[in-house]
Write a structure and sequence with these properties.
Chain B: This is FAD binding domain-containing protein. The complex is a heterotrimer of chains A (169), B (283) and C (801). Helices cover 36% and strands 26% of the residues of chain B. Chain B is of the alpha+beta class. Chain B folds into 3 domains: 7-52, Uridine Diphospho-n-acetylenolpyruvylglucosamine Reductase, domain 2 (2-Layer Sandwich), CATH 3.30.43; 62-172, Uridine Diphospho-n-acetylenolpyruvylglucosamine Reductase, domain 3, CATH 3.30.465; 177-282, CO dehydrogenase flavoprotein, C-terminal domain (Enolase-like, domain 1), CATH 3.30.390.50. In chain C, strand 24, helix 16 (515-527) and strand 25 form a beta-alpha-beta unit. The two termini of chain C are 47 Å apart. Residues 792-801 of chain C have low confidence and may be disordered. Classes of the chains: A alpha+beta (169), B alpha+beta (283), C alpha+beta (801).
Chain lengths: 169, 283, 801
């Protein structure tokens, strides 16, 4: 990367195991990079100021708001989005639990909850209810009243969420 | 809500970073970005250059130095939350860190970034003031240290110069009596009031008490009247009550849509009472 | 009252429930869980440009100069318009409702000479990217003279400075009516209880903001408009009526939608502007509202005062009710509805509730102010009215020394059909059973014991009750019953495929309610096939089935009725052919569990799949004169207004040091007739109640005295999060509707309608030792702590109350 300040920069990162390269404005958010440059629109933008959590992705396995990260900050990093979760053409344990517990209605916030919960379960496969509440409290949902999201994560934990990337750090 | 145009650079050395900051008065440091990015999205900030510190070596690490712990500015809130050194040597930080936003923010936001941001409702400014921490900064005129008492001077204002970078914070571990209290409507919300209190237990009393308040006031500050009170004798229930009254009398809280001045005054009193009672139990 | 003529499309077939009533998992979910939903922001058209708006930074001002030349010269800008540029195409959108005393307003697409609220669109910019469009917006050069900002609705209604020159006396609405001998009831009352209740200004704040994409092809005059609207067909009509696009060439496309809650049940200036911009620049244009715009310029909700009084006789029976609502309508009527949706709905729809009140009188006013227009939000009008009524019920119970359960039971309607003083007929309901069920669920004696014990420890818990009856399945009949003449009906198309599976298309767009699943259940049971064999398309395009909008808890009832009627036509075809194949009479054929069987003859059956195959491919199986289309489109509109009912009991604790209201548990009873899918019904309850909790405690759109809105981000406008969201216990009662398909009644709004009253009642119950009664939302920590400070002396609060 350049040692002089630039308004446009080359950036490359790995998203869901695939390498993406582009030349972007310095100000471009990681969320816009994922949605538009990488054409992975499953990550949603609900507020663009870091509160709603719909845009949460895993950045080097940790949950991060992609609206509060610049694409250029993710240079060389590993990103995972909701598109990475299904196992082949089947829902994974967590996704299935969300369906069975009715943990989503409109589905707009869902990717953020799934990615946050994925990070939680990878780090701690047997979270307490309070651990789950803490995690779920970091995102907004306007449809479900949240309880069924917590139940879904509890169910996934009980069934053994598949750890796909070796866990934390 | 898209950020305005700016230039970006990710220097590989601290000197290089300082050069960029010194070369342009509108250049800004980008650390975790968790406070800066919303300001950019709302176009409330318009830096010419963002100097990203993520590749600058030497800003990481939590080092136990005996009578203090040296914390790198680039250490994330999450790393503090999970650090054994912090848990054992500076449990007040472990207690405060869980109040900072949410796990998804704590994974990116940095200790140094939040400290330098000097947000009056910030947990770190409040805690560091109560601990009497020392800030380590580097700039074009070299390195210097700034005591917490001299660092936080106003809302979102520190004595760090525009071209200086906060590199480390040295946090004393001698203040083994401590309490951190925060009143927030919802988990992760900005607090309506924060209180941090520390002291050194000595002969059944509390020596060198420091009490700070955040969020309820325009900028983080110490409650010196309360500190004086605490040095008078053994910490008792009655003293806690008196400390609460003293705190209420000595703060001039802000009013906004989340709570008026009188309400925040009551909160500060309650939090000071709780904090002193906790000191009593810990002392 | 005018009676509705009975039409064919008001009858529905009787259907055996197989899938209906079961917890079928949603067919929508696999797409939504894997990031494969397609929301409006996810749609990109080739060559598209991006739109951003310059919005007024002041509440009320005369624009003296506006110069867009710097914007037009900016990098990547294709077009910029101010109000002058757009007025030639459209003067604005008229908002009014056909109720007494409604004075219409016309809302310009971009402000003309005056801006009337912070956030009003002043100019629009079309550019290569959203980033570039926002850059250009900053270059606006304009001057304005500030005018007095009218902020307070009481002051506005009393006259004085004018908020909107189209409403010179600041009233967008003013009327009233009286039914029964109300004066006598109040003159002879043993006791009168009354109160003024305030529901604060809030935002529906769906997680997905609004969005519009327009693509105009001049050669064929074809307009395609993507909008996450709740009313695609109405929007299409408006595009023709206001802008002149040829109706036959206009298609409104509604992608997956991230919640609507009424905010998206309007027609907005942005939806009218985008087609004009697309036509002007000759390229597709896309606008995705950002969150700040959504909080500032998406329809606001709720703000009003409701004054309500009960006349009580010596036995504690309510003998009359007087209600007056004053709404803060904002700067314009919100098209296509009006300011009437809050105060008019509140007083017309709600004052009697579940109570046997013989006389009612109401007045309503809506004041224009220099704030964002107020529109619909889940249970519009019902929330404020129910809030006032149910909180007054608790006041009455306190005044009479009765428990809130006993007071309600003492006054509840017991015999159906019941006609309220306005002549509105309630066919059936489980109103008394709701009270009994809630009392049992909360174990009231045990609660009282625990409350007393905790008070001794300085802890304050409270239980609040709220019962509701809500009109559902919004229909022509409902409209007429409430004195309006709006016509509603929806169609559905059902097609049986050669292998016995079905495709269903409905005219309603979905915002997360699971309509694709519930409608599959309705179709499957009517056709006698498995629910997995039915694929439902909601109104993704106005080229298919017609619908009057996903509003007023009408989806399950109205789309369900249309689906059942259309499926019934197809079912008759299958029965005819099956009868021919089985050499039996058509009337003896029943379709259940994938088989067409002869009633009472155990081995005489053929699979529905085989019958369908035969209809497509085997002429020999056809009876004489058979017409083989296995596709039918039918309309439905309920013949009578229908009402769901239920209630909530909410358990709270007040934190004595902070004034925070903490929610321990929600008990909900819902009777929406036959439940199609309990998962979905329970989901609607939980989500609606949490919105009610938000509107009661956490949320308020705040303005300062200059009319500046102070809550423009989710940092300041605080939606409830999981840590403050309580667990639920939900109990279903089922009193089927006598006239809808399968006895279904609508639901979905009752959580928000009734929860706020239960919250306030619970807080007031917890506050009872302090002798304070709160009546204004939101119940901020500051207000609660103030209330708890009233009697906190050294000896503690007065325990005698």
């Amino acid at each position: 990367m350049s040692t002089t300040p630039e308004e446009r920069l080359d950036v490359s990162m790995t998203i869901n195991g695939r390498r993406y390269r582009s030349t972007v404005e310095a100000r471009r958010t990681l969320a816009d990079f994922i949605r538009e440059d990488a054409q992975l629109p499953g990550t949603k933008l609900g507020c663009e100021h870091g509160v709603c959590g719909a845009c949460t992705v895993l950045l080097d396995d940790l949950p991060a708001r992609s609206c509060l990260t610049l694409a250029v900050q993710a240079e060389g990093r590993q990103i995972r989005t909701v598109e990475s979760l299904a196992e082949g053409q089947e829902l994974n344990t967590l996704q299935r639990a969300f369906r069975e517990q009715h943990g989503l209605q409109c589905g707009f916030c869902t990717a953020g909850f799934l990615m946050t919960a994925t990070a939680l379960l990878e780090e701690n496969p047997t979270p307490t209810r309070d651990d789950i509440v803490e995690t779920v409290s970091g995102s907004l949902c306007r449809c479900t009243g949240y309880q069924t999201i917590v139940s879904a994560i509890e169910q996934a934990a009980a069934e053994g969420q598949n750890v796909t990337n070796g866990g934390d750090q | 809500m898209k950020p305005p145009k700016f230039r970006y650079v990710a220097p590989r050395t601290l000197d290089e970073a300082v050069e960029h900051l010194a070369a342009d008065p509108d250049a800004k440091v980008l650390s975790g970005g968790q406070s800066l990015m919303p300001l950019l999205a709302m176009r409330l900030a318009a830096p010419s250059i963002l100097v990203d510190l993520q590749h600058v070596p030497g800003l990481d690490g939590i080092e136990d130095q005996g009578s203090s712990v040296l914390i790198g500015a680039g250490v994330t809130h999450r790393e503090i939350e999970r650090s054994d050194v912090i848990a054992q040597r500076l449990p007040i930080l472990s207690s405060a860190v869980v109040h900072i936003a949410h796990p998804q923010i704590r994974s990116r936001g940095t200790f140094g970034g939040s400290t330098a941001h000097a947000d009056p409702s910030g947990e770190w400014p409040t805690v560091l003031l109560a601990l009497g921490a020392t800030m380590h900064a580097v700039g074009p005129r070299g390195r210097r240290t700034i005591e917490a008492d001299d660092f936080f001077v106003g809302p979102f204002t520190s004595t760090l110069d525009e071209d200086e970078i906060l590199t480390h914070v040295s946090v004393p571990t001698t203040r083994t009596a401590w309490s951190f209290q925060e009143a927030a409507v919802k988990r992760g919300d900005y607090g309506l009031a924060l209180v941090a209190a520390t002291g050194i237990p000595r002969d059944g009393q509390l020596a060198e008490a420091r009490v700070s308040v955040g969020a309820a006031v325009g900028s983080v500050r110490r409650l010196t009247d309360v500190e004086r009170l605490l040095s008078r004798g053994p910490v008792t229930d009655a003293l806690a009550e008196e400390a609460a009254l003293t705190a209420a009398a000595s703060v001039d809280p802000i009013s906004d849509i989340h709570g008026n001045s009188e309400y925040r005054r009551k909160l500060v009193a309650s939090l000071v009472r709780r904090a002193v009672l906790e000191l009593k139990n810990g002392a | 009252m005018k009676k509705l003529d009975k039409h064919q499309h008001m009858s529905t077939p009787a259907v055996a429930a197989r899938s209906v009533g079961t917890r079928v998992l949603r067919s929508e979910d696999p797409r939504l869980l894997t990031g494969r939903g397609e929301f409006i922001a996810d749609i990109d058209l080739p060559r598209q440009l991006h739109v951003a708006f310059v919005r007024s930074p002041v509440a009320h001002a005369r624009i003296t100069n506006i110069d867009l030349s710097a914007i037009r010269d900016a990098d990547g800008v294709a077009l910029a318009w101010s109000g002058k540029d757009v007025a030639a195409f459209c003067e604005g959108l008229v908002g009014e409702m056909a109720v007494e005393g409604c004075v219409p307003t016309t809302m310009p697409l971009l402000a003309g000479d005056e801006v009337l609220y912070v956030g009003e669109p002043v100019a629009v910019v079309v550019a290569e990217s959203r980033y570039a469009a926002e850059d250009a917006c900053e270059l606006i050069d304009w001057d304005f003279e500030e005018l007095p900002a009218v902020i307070n609705m009481d002051a506005a209604a009393a006259g004085g400075p004018v908020a909107n020159p189209q409403l010179p006396d600041n009233l967008g609405l003013n009327g009233g009516a009286s039914f029964g001998d109300v004066s006598a009831a109040f003159d002879q009352a043993a006791q009168i209880v009354e109160g003024r209740f305030y529901t604060c200004r809030v935002s529906a704040a769906p997680m997905e903001t609004r969005g519009v994409i327009a693509d105009y092809e001049w050669a064929s005059k074809t307009l395609r408009l993507w909008s996450n609207t709740q009313m695609p067909h109405y929007l299409k009509y408006m595009l023709t009526a206001y802008l002149g696009f040829p109706e036959q060439s206009v298609e409104v496309i509604t992608p997956d939608t991230g919640g609507g809650f009424g905010m998206k049940a309007h027609v907005y200036p942005e939806e009218m502007l985008l087609p004009l911009l697309a036509r002007e620049v000759g390229r597709p244009v896309k606008w995705i509202e950002d969150r700040r715009e959504n909080l500032i310029a998406g329809a606001h909700a709720h703000e009003q005062y409701v004054d309500i009084a009960y006349a009580l006789d010596a036995e504690g029976k309510i003998t009359g009710v007087r209600t007056h609502a004053l709404g803060d309508g904002g700067a314009y009527h919100m098209p296509p509805w009006s300011m009437a949706v809050e105060p008019w709905c509140a007083v017309v729809m709600t004052p009697t509730g579940i109570y046997d009140v013989p006389a009612a009188e109401y007045t309503y006013k809506a004041a224009a102010t220099n704030k964002t227009p107020v529109g619909a939000y889940r249970g519009v009008g019902y929330m404020a009215g129910t809030f006032a009524r149910e909180c007054l019920a608790d006041d009455a119970a306190r005044a009479l020394g009765m428990s809130p359960f006993d007071f309600r039971r003492h006054n509840v309607v017991r015999e159906f059909p019941w006609t309220n003083p306005q002549g509105i007929v309630y066919q059936e309901g489980s109103w008394r059973q709701t009270i009994d069920a809630l009392e049992e669920m909360v174990d009231y004696p045990a609660f009282l014991h625990r409350q007393a014990q905790l008070r001794e420890q300085g802890r304050y818990i409270g239980l609040g009750l709220s019962c509701f009856v809500e009109s559902s399945g919004e229909s022509s009949a409902t409209s007429l019953e409430h004195g309006l003449g709006d016509v509603y009906h929806d169609t559905a198309t059902v097609r049986l495929n050669p292998n016995g599976t079905a495709n269903v298309t409905i005219g309603l767009s979905a915002q997360g309610q699971g309509l694709a699943t519930t409608m599959a259940q309705m179709a499957a049971d009517t056709l006698g096939i498995k629910v997995e064999d039915v694929s439902v398309q909601t109104a993704r395009s106005t080229d298919h089935a017609y619908g009057s909008g996903t509003i007023g808890s009408r989806g399950a009832v109205v789309a369900g009725g249309a689906v059942a009627r259309a499926a019934d036509v197809v079912r008759e075809k299958v029965r005819q052919v099956a009868a021919h194949m089985l050499e039996a009479a058509t009337d003896d054929i029943e379709l259940v569990d994938g088989l067409a069987s002869v009633k009472g003859v155990s081995d005489a059956s053929v699979s529905i799949a085989d019958v369908a195959t035969a209809i497509y491919f085997d002429l020999d199986s056809w009876p004489k004169d058979f017409e083989p289309s296995l596709e039918a489109t039918q309309a439905y509109d309920p013949s009578q207004a229908m009402f769901s009912n239920g209630g909530h009991a909410i358990l709270v604790e007040l934190e004595a040091e902070t004034g925070f209201v903490r929610f321990e548990k929600i008990y909900s009873v819902e009777d929406c007739g036959t439940v199609i899918n309990p998962n979905i019904v329970e989901g609607q309850i939980r989500g609606g109640v949490l919105q009610g909790i938000g509107a009661s405690v956490f949320e308020e759109l705040a303005y300062d005295e200059s009319g500046q809105i102070l809550t423009t981000t989710f940092l300041d406008y605080g939606l409830p999060t999981m840590d403050v969201a309580p667990p639920f216990e939900i109990h279903h009662l089922e009193t089927p509707s006598s006239h809808s398909a399968s006895g279904v009644k609508g639901m979905g709004e009752s959580g928000l309608i009734a929860a706020p009253a239960a919250v306030l009642n619970a807080v007031n119950d917890a506050l009872s030792p302090f002798g304070v009664v709160l009546r204004d939302l939101p119940l901020t920590p500051e207000k609660v702590l103030d209330a708890m400070s009233v009697a906190t002396t050294a000896s503690g609060p007065d325990e005698g109350l």
